Amino acid sequence: MKAKHRLIPKKRAGSTAKSSHATENPGPNAWRLAALSLLLVVLVIALYASVGSHPFTNYDDPEYVTGNEHVKAGLHWSTVAWAFTAFDASNWHPMTWLSHALDCQLWGLDPAGHHWTNVGIHAINVVLILWLLAGATGEMGKSFAVAALFAVHPLNVESVAWVAERKNVLSMFFFLGTLAAYGWYVRQPSLRRYVLVGLLFVLGLMAKPMLVTVPFVLLLLDFWPLRRMRNEGAIADSVGTLPGSKLLLEKIPLLCLSAASAVVTVLAQRPSLATAERFPFGLRVTNAIYSCVLYLQKTVWPVRLALFYPHPASLTPWQWAKSAILLVAISWMVWRTRNRRPSLLMGWLWFLGTLVPVLGLVQVGAQGMADRYAYLPLLGIFVAVVWGVDLPARGRKVVAVVVVSAFSFLTWRQIGFWKTNEELWAHAIEVTGSTLVAEDKLAVALQSEGRQEDAIVHFTRAAQIEPLDPLSNFSLGADLQWHGRLREAVPHYEIAIQHTTDSRLKADAYQNLATDYLQIGDALQARAKFVAALQADPQLVTAFAGLGEVAGEPVRSLAQAVVERPASGGYLQLAEAFHRAGFDTEARLALAQALAIDPALAHAQITQVTAAQ
Q1: Residue 340 neighbours by CB distance under 10 Å
Q2: pLDDT digits (tens, 9 = 90+) for 180-198
Q3: CB contact at 8 A, 139 and 396
Q4: Can you tell me the mean pLDDT for 263-270?
Q5: pTM for this one?
Q6: Percent of all residues in the chain with a pLDDT value above 90, rounded to a whole number
Q7: Residue 8 to residues 25, 37, 339, 488, Cα–Cα distance (Å)
Q8: What is the set of domains in the chain, with CATH numbers?
């Protein structure tokens, strides 16, 4: 007969009275649970209501939504196929792409709908946390405290208020679903129930690969609150307990899924991986240690939060050494109290373990840390504190109300910085000082408001921080060109072309440089750069108008007409006109556009043009 596991096993020798009480509790009152769930949902909606009027941000949102043609097309089979095969944004996360595509299907590019989806998923996550903890421990009050802290903590604003961070809230949803399925499996282990755990885990990995630590988290839950773990060789003193080695073997299939996800993630992020020259491994390790303490600090005192924290160029020995000492001291303390207060060890290892994938040991990007990376790890700290710190019942309630109220105020204040891109990046610069990312993005925000002169100030600062920065050099070149300083603009465009990995920015830089040469009077260089622009981005069809200017009449008029009213027949005529003018490369590019618009062009029409070439 199969042994039946319980979320909270029966009392064992050495268990505290409190554990026994939780075990015998038949379960939280359904009405009370429903009322507390509703209260949490209202709290989240009230706190985040203002995000419905916020715009998309100019950081990652264009790549994930506003500038992503696949996502903007909505949910179609072609979108699904792309989502499961694309490494766009240096990630493989098809569930995230499909979630964004569904939003575009429902709301188009109205940012309100996209923002409210994030808020809704966050609210669901908060309720799931309450249900899972209450079901696993029987402690309704403490479970509510953890869920409320998670709902209102300022570090979570970045994950909720930023549309591109859908992957964070969505992966958390699947993560919590995985934990719920695991609790179901533990009650009565079976292949069917284990498969459900694996399925939800895979969906979570396909939302954000940070969830590779799930097998580790499940082992922690086996230790507490599930209490499935017993020492090797010990006699079972509770139904369903297993030696640690067997619990580890139980997680092998999930560990294989984690390994597969890690391999795919490295392949996807390979273009964005930082070089050892820029961030040596020793610096990555010391920054990882230092960042753990910064996350702790921001958990306790969540002020001066910013969207981008630059990676430190160096750390003094004292900076990382004192951080290491603090981490070791806390670890020693929670290990010493593991039998009396197992929640402390579980919560602390949850925090450290789930941070590992985002500590920058494998560095992607130029950030040293990020608020969004704490979304999952924070849960461990909240559980450790709420269950591990003993206070009188009345005192617990007073402290909980004060802390939740204080965090709610700070969160409301932090959400306000996301009201506009200008405020978001101005605040980031105020917190971290001038950084390349913040200066570039603030300049772009000002530029979009028509404040060109103000934007140039920040583009200039960005170029001073990083002289080879493509975006600031492109913008400085455009400004110089606008003011008639044509030859001064050339080196800025060349830097942008040489150092950007963005094909559209490269194409725009080539086109602006071609126009610059055309204004200078160098038709040969102008022609070469217009062709390069089309080769970098075949959709930049305005370059055909520039080539028409180089070719002269009658090509000029035909090219302008075709650009204004694109049609396959028009591009076929343009291809023939280019050929007659001796512009054979341009003729082939025009022919490619004709075929792109109408792949079913009559064979005779194509043959006529190609034969002429």
Answers
A1: 10
A2: 999 999 999 999 999 999 9
A3: no
A4: 91
A5: 0.88
A6: 78
A7: 10, 22, 16, 72
A8: 28-416 (no CATH), 465-612 (1.25.40.10)
